[in-house]
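Why do we care about 3D structure at all? Because function follows from shape, and shape follows, mostly, from sequence. That is the central idea of this module. The next example makes it concrete: a single protein chain, its amino acid sequence, and then its structure expressed as tokens.
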Amino acid sequence: MDNPNNPFDTGSGGILRQPKSVWATAGASVVAFMGIGLVDPILPSIAKGLDATAGQVSLLFTSYFLITALAMLVTGFVSSRIGGRKTLLLGLALVVVFAGLSGTSGSVGELVGFRAGWGLGNALFVSTALAVIVGAAAGGSAAAILLYESALGLGMACGPLAGALLGDASWRYPFFGTAALMAVGFLCIAAFLGEQPKPARKTSPLDPLRALGHGGLASVAISAFFYNYTFFTVLAFTPFVLDMSPYRSGAVFFAWGVLLAVFSVLVAPRLQKRFGSPKVLGGSLVLLAVDVLVLGYGDHTTAVLCTVLSGALIGVNNTVYTELALGVSDAPRPVASAGYNFVRWFAAAAAPFFAPKIEEWTDVHVPFVVAAVTAALGALVVVVRRRALSHEAAVARQPRHAAEDGATAFAN
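And the structure:
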């Protein structure tokens, strides 16, 4: 008998009984998400090794996410023409090449450029991974989406830990390690994943922009833009403020990632069921604003605790934003998600650039004040649009065509 209180029991087969193709794709997804937080604990080491400033090293995030944002307009165009399997393999190949090149960088400029190429590969891979998992998974789309969310949380948790363990010897080793792991993922997908059917309609690069003409989707995207500025201020700027060894910084962000995973997969769905998506999202954003404000003005121990605690709030936000973005409009889910991510990843590119600049212009506290304000602005958008979002969240829970159930583009 199925247990409705067990999130890993989703009906026939459940999340753990999956074919090899699904596990291969999910495993590669873990490594792909590891790449986001991999550099966190070694940012000070990279700055020291390449004789760079904190602002220059933070551009590793800016170049990565700027290319990721722009790539959202072409990932659907590519996958709808060459198919899901080839898109995954192309993305993985680019990550292997550019992650490896990152480890050979002789200057911060080279490293920033290689991270941009890495961002393109990651966008191609992650934008297609969930759709492929849904198409091949046993137990329906619910099991597939939960498996994908679990991969995201595990990757975000393990990325800083892997960066710390490898980076303690040299800041170059985490990049080489990622390239090796992604090469294994490439071989697994090549061996176990068959060709995926192409969509009946080819996607235009302009389709995601047209989807943003829907008021509900535009509201979610704008709110997520403000939220992502806060998110990546914590992720990219806090390591410099904590000023810890790679091991200690890695431990902090590992704990952060564990909370992110637990609250994303286990806690957020229960809160949504009880209070509704808009209330949960608005409340979580307000709490995040308070958390980063305390982080910026507290002592070192308080800053560490607030950094870890932010993982719980970020995990809740990620899940709720994903479901709203995929359900607020009548656009196909891959198109709606691409438009949503096109907007929000620009903030992920902006925060690592502006936070160190703001510190230079003012002091170390003000970047966190700005991050608190952007989180509050995200909550304000949710409050102003709460009626529309409540209605659209209800529509999102209605059954949709199976072909669209998992077709998302880097929804987290």
